[in-house]
Amino acid sequence: MNKCLFTFYAAVVIACQPAIAVADGGKLASVLAAQPDDAKARYQYRHPQETIEFFGIEPGMTVVEGLPGRGWYTRILLPYLGGDGRLIGANYPLDLWPNFPFATEEFMAEMSQWLENWPAGAEEWRGEDGASIGAFWFGAMPEEMAGTADVVFFVRMLHNVWRFQSEGKGDYLDMAIKDAYDVLKPGGVLGVVQHHARDNMSDEWANGSHGYMKKQFVIDRVVAAGFELEAESDINANDKDQPSNDDIVWRLSPTYATSRDDEELKAKYAAIGESNRMTLKFRKPE
Description:
Number of domains: 1
Helix content: 25-40%
CATH topology: Rossmann fold
Number of helices: 12
Oligomer: single chain
């Protein structure tokens, strides 16, 4: 075939191929560069760019963030998703919170207003062209949200729902996974980042009370709810984290729960970094 004709036909074929959606790495890098220094200090452990790209989160998507808390990922996702996107925070059920020892009457009064207060507070992180904001409690997802999300993002939150479910307090883990399935569009992604217990640790130790869970347990539970495991990654793995039976995940950075008054012990934990984490990508069948 004439070289010019071949080039013409090849160009036509390429132009007619459907576009493959990819994360906007340039925009994401810009958003990450604009975060405050204390957030950037966590990048070496939390790998936000690689994690967001692994889960395929793109500007314009609707994303559900489980337990947004103080907004570490929220502050990244809102400007990254942009004005055409939507970020929905999903909190633990209100009746789970009294199980924590810090849940005073004053705390619970404030938490009861979370559904209204969290979206209002997150507005300041949207910037000039950030995503719109919504919220719901796990177990009480509004019907109109069903089938609307592209990605559900569970980062370091499953241990508490499993801990209290395993103690017979409520079906909290199953509830969260079901809501993730129901809120997603067919073909949507559930991304999980979770403190990872070694296989040789006991199931009792890995029941969430120490912060850690076993990877196969998480996979089995999510797949049983109808998801398919699509991929896993070691981007958030940390081989330095080797907890004993007496350890909790909160001994590590940034909490240092067991070494606040012991600088030598704190330095030991600081050298480990943050926890060893599994990173799992599930998909809701089409």
